[in-house]
Amino acid sequence: MRYRKALIMTLALGTIWTRASFSGDALAPGEIVRACYARFYYAGDDMKARILMKLIDKGGQERIRDLTMLRKNSAEGGEQKYFIYFHQPADVKDTTFMVYKYPDKDDDRWLFIPAIDLVKRIAANDKFSSFVGSDFTYEDISGRKPEEDTHTLLREEDVDGRSCFVVESVPQERSAYTKRVSWIDKENFLPLKEEFYDKQNELYRRFEALEVKEDNGIPTATKRVMQNVKTGHRTEVTFQEVEYNAGIGDDIFSERYLRRPPLQWIE
Amino acid sequence: MDRIKTVCVVFISGALFFPVGKVWAAAPRFHGFAEMVYGPKVSDDNTQRDNFNLLEQRLQLKTKYLFEGEGALARKNSSINFKGDFTVDEYFSGKTDFELREFNFSTTPHDSLDVKLGRQVLTWGTGDYLFINDLFPKDYISFFTGRDDEYLKKPSDALKVSFYPSWANIDLVASRFEANTIADGGRLSFFDSFQGGIAGTNSDRDLLEPPLRPSNIEYALRGYRSLGSHEAAFYYFRGFDKNPGGFKDEAARQLFYPRLDVYGGSLRGPAAGGIGNIELGYYHSREDPDGKDRLIGNSRFKILTGYEKDLGNDFKVGFQYLYEQTLDYGNYSASLLPTDFVFDKFRHLLAQRITKLYKNQTVSVSLFNFYSPSDRDGYLRPTVSYDATDQWKLALGANLPWGEDDFTEFGQMKRNKNVFFRARYSF
User: Fold this and answer.
1) Which residue of B128, B153, B275, B319 is the best one to mutate when testing the A interface, meaning the one whose CB has the most A CBs within 10 A?
2) Structure pTM?
3) Which CATH architecture has domain B40-54+70-79+102-387+398-420?
4) Which domains, from first to last, does chain A contain?
5) For A113, which residue in chain B has the nearest alpha carbon?
6) pLDDT tens for each residue of B146-191
7) Complex-level ipTM
8) Mutation to test the B interface, candidates A117, A134, A259, most B Cβ within 10 Å
9) What is the DSSP letter of B297?
10) pLDDT per residue as tens digits for the range A180-223
């Protein structure tokens, strides 16, 4: 009896201690997902990354999307601005794309088509459509708010030698999936694996983070893959250069720079 | 000994390659595409050729030279931009041509000021294929034959100055007059009042462009700012009608481009789960301000509203409604001669665009439809395109204008129906 009490005390203390160190076993599943959302989508005050996406179909034919992404946060979990410049393929070179992401309403999106000097406003109420033909949706790129799902901690499990929380998320709001299972690294809270289930409750997409590197002490999944297991199409993503807290000015996220890409940030 | 030889070879080849390598690094890199387009006709007319109205090969080259180093131009983010098209046009028996689409110098002399001088493509406004305050030149022959959308926009020789004070963005453009390219009977038939109907090679109109002189420079101004998620803009244009809207000498079949001022505004932003836009413009006919001159087009009022929505699964729909009204219509009708064609006071035009993407967005199926209940005419543009690889793109489509009358905007084009096929290799 006494022994049991001591054990409970130890566990409780352990819980408090690990909570403070931000890697506790007793974290509520919602908190785990919120931490993951913050680390994955809001890391740093701003971010600059050169990203190579390979879109590979079932037959192995490859298309590429080579882009620079700039992101700036106004507050963690709050408004964000994205600026994307396409380097390749040739037919979309110099095309730019800008997103203002709001926590509580639809994004504002603009696309600049250089051949016709046109800044086009893009209807953005569908977050589940594919980002530039890849297996990632717009929601995958800019994040789904943790409050839109209910989360359950299923178990703990290792992924490539890293111990992870395995959390199941079931949507409360409109969603492209009916269930998502995430393997979240207990130490850095990055999602190392995610599985998405469709209406038939069958697995249809699988995300994996294959490599994690640090810049400025901030870990980034620098190699990622999203596979559509139903169609056999997959998208491999490499973050070739990542820089956090680079000091990207707010003025970059404007029509001016859509038409005239900011060379100091995109080259 | 061998080692010394190797070192020498490496050193010499290094010395040879180093400057070559430097030259290559500094040489501009070209991008662009090679394209073949073919547009067989599916209706008869009396233009130059009966069986097709488009057959050409095109090579587009573009490059950009960035000023580098410590010089003043480099510090001001300056660049020279070039884009040019070499064409072989089988419609005109293999005529070769070169079209300079862009050749300009661009710089940022001040933090809140951009300048672009030279040949450039210019666009603004909120419409989709419908333009009220965008008075920059268009090429409607390209549009009606099925060239890529890029070629609907004609380049301008212009100076564009953009100011970015904190409260708004302001663009000011001064440009040389450049007329719209419109059907002239050579490639496309159209309504020619001198011929009393739809005309082809029999048309012998003489279009008189304003000569280049300081008083004929055109000015276009846009001020815009965001209001939350919405964008508001105002526009001003002072120049000439881009279409030959005035008769100079009827006996000599001479038409000209009357002076025109346009005042307008627009608002665009999220509405009802999609993007809504509204734009209006007042066209002031400076050479016929009260509408009493039957030879010159009257002042007009135009308003355009549009709505686009993403329905999910890469399926988008868009609707537009354009209303045009000829002002001082009483003066216009009173001035007409009994033999003149009478144009309506009002025009209503509806447009729809439906786009659906398939196969990881490599296949695009789209339908654009214009329909005017007042003119009883319309224009259907179905297109299917396929990105076979990142380099190869194939497109198949049709241009199907129709109309009950011969003199309405789309009705006059009704004998130009075609299908078109494009194959493009980008590099």
Assistant:
1) B275
2) 0.89
3) Beta Barrel (2.40)
4) 29-266 (2.50.20.10)
5) B150
6) 999 999 999 999 999 999 998 999 999 999 999 999 999 999 999 9
7) 0.88
8) A117
9) P
10) 999 999 999 999 999 999 999 999 999 999 999 998 889 999 99
